[in-house]
Every structure is written in structure tokens, then in C-alpha cells.
């Protein structure tokens, strides 16, 4: 059965499925769903949890053998699989389809993956989870959904908030559910149960948790999200970050896109280029899409990056922060 995030708890309450698939790119919802699945397994007497991080080259035969072998420590076990690579061998897809179709018994299979594309959703092993087990597909929350999510979490902590206060909190965390959860937990510690929070309460207690880090800037540039990139850039400027480090991060993304575009234009297979450039599976789609702007365009931006480097070092005229802002916009727009 396929369910949404707001249906997942009720679906678990109906009984333990043989297999659970959790897919999507929103980490907080996936983490909470995984915690619920593991808690259900423990309540059903599954005291041993086996976690597998599955990347390219993973030894599936050892996992399949472990699934079939009796445990020395617990008669019932949870197999927690994190699929970081979606190019699965035939033995893996066949086993996943079979395991997902098994009724709840000695083992519980929980599989976490990134967002599945339309073709991947038609795979036999994914269909087996939908038909025989439980498949949760999570999506980033839209504005109204985010407010409702935060309100439910506040109520669980015994608090309420004015709608304007909730909007203020949403602006502070920029849709980052992990940051929102942390801030709500903080509010629960600061205010008594039953309190109705105002905008003044939020302003007085909630820090800016938008995760202004250099890696967040790199991610925004890689996605071509100019609005997000500029907000992170200005946040880092306010925090006193050195321009040279930010220039390095942006230049790294431009160089990666230039290299990828050049390889693809010369007929190299995407999978081979991905491996050579060490691009992770969840990121390859966005890099491949942006590389289509062409190697010449990205190589031209490397010239702009070299000029920025000289400005920062004081050997070329100009001011570092305006030049850094200009390069950030160019890198996002391609």
C-alpha cells in the first residue's frame, strides 16, 4: 500500500507489514518515518537491528545470506537498508521483490531511498512493496503544508501559536524541517504547556536556523537556486565568513559542471563521468541537467572565478563581496 506522510502512522497502527519502503528527498520526514517503523519493530519483539549502507559494489550475497540465517541474539530482526546507489544488480532486485512480498514474520525489511523517478517506480521490487508491504513517498512541504506540520508538532508539545507567529517561524527556518523541529523542541522547554505563542515570543527565542554554511551555498549553486544562494551568501557575510572560502566553494561547483559538460560533449557515458567526478547518485540528475548549458559556458565562468580570486587577493581592482555576489548569480543562472 502506498501512503502519504500524514497517513503513515495510521497505516502502521493496522499491523506490521512484511516490508516498508521510504522514498524521497526530504530528510526530516524520512527520519521520523524510519523512527516510527523501527519503534514498531521493537514493540513486536524485534530486538536486533541490522543496518546496511548500500553503495555501488555492495556485497548483496552476504546480506541475502544473513536474511535467511537464524540470529544468535534475537529470533526476530529488523533489516535497515539505506540505498545510496540505485543501480542495483539483478540478484538484489529479485531478492528485494521476494522479501517485500513475504508476510510479516521473523524479519522486518525497511528500505530507505532517495526520490524515485517514474521509471524506477515501475520496477518489480518497488511494486512489490506497494502491493504487499507499505510504501511511503515523502515530498518537500509547501508553505501551507509546512505551517500545518509545525502546528501539529507544537500541539504534540502542548503548545499553540498565532498564525502570524507560525509564519514567522517558517520564515526563520526556510522550510528546513530539521531546524523547525529543533526550534519547536526549544520552545517546549521555554514555555509552559497550554501557552499560546505570539510573534513576540518567536522573535525573542528562535535563532536563525537556516543552516548558513559553505556546503549549503555549494548546494544552492549546484541546484541553480539563485534566491537561496544569495540568502546563504549574505548570511555568511554577516557571520564574518572569509570571501576566499566562499570563492573556493563556488569555483569548485563551476569547475565540476565544466568538467562534466566537457566529458558528456565528447561522448562519455553519464555513469562513467559520474564515477570519475565522484558525484553521488542523489545529485547526478541536477548536475546532468545544468551541464546541458555547455562546457564553453561553464569554462567561461571559470575565467570570472579566476578574476574574483585576484580581487580577493588584492591584485586586481574591485571589491570582494560585490564580485562574489555577481559570480554567485552567474553560476546559478548558468
What can you tell me about this protein's structure?
It is a single chain. By secondary structure, this protein is α/β, with parallel strands linked by helices. It has three domains: 2-137, Rossmann fold (3-Layer(aba) Sandwich); 143-205, Helicase, Ruva Protein, domain 3; 214-333, Zinc Finger, Delta Prime, domain 3 (Up-down Bundle), CATH 1.20.272. It contains 17 helices and eight strands. The strands form two sheets. It has a six-stranded parallel sheet, sandwiched between helices. A two-stranded parallel sheet has the order 7-8. Strand 4 (77-83), helix 4 and strand 5 form a beta-alpha-beta unit. Helix 11 (214-223) packs parallel to helix 13 (243-265) and helix 13 (243-265) packs antiparallel against helix 14 (270-277).
Give a short summary of the structure:
This protein has 334 residues and is α/β, with parallel strands linked by helices.
SSE topology sketch:
Elements: E1 2-3, H1 5-13, E2 19-23, H2 27-43, E3 48-54, H3 60-68, E4 77-83, H4 90-101, E5 107-113, H5 118-121, H6 124-132, E6 134-137, H7 143-156, E7 160-161, H8 163-173, H9 177-190, E8 196-197, H10 199-205, H11 214-223, H12 226-238, H13 243-265, H14 270-277, H15 281-291, H16 295-313, H17 320-333
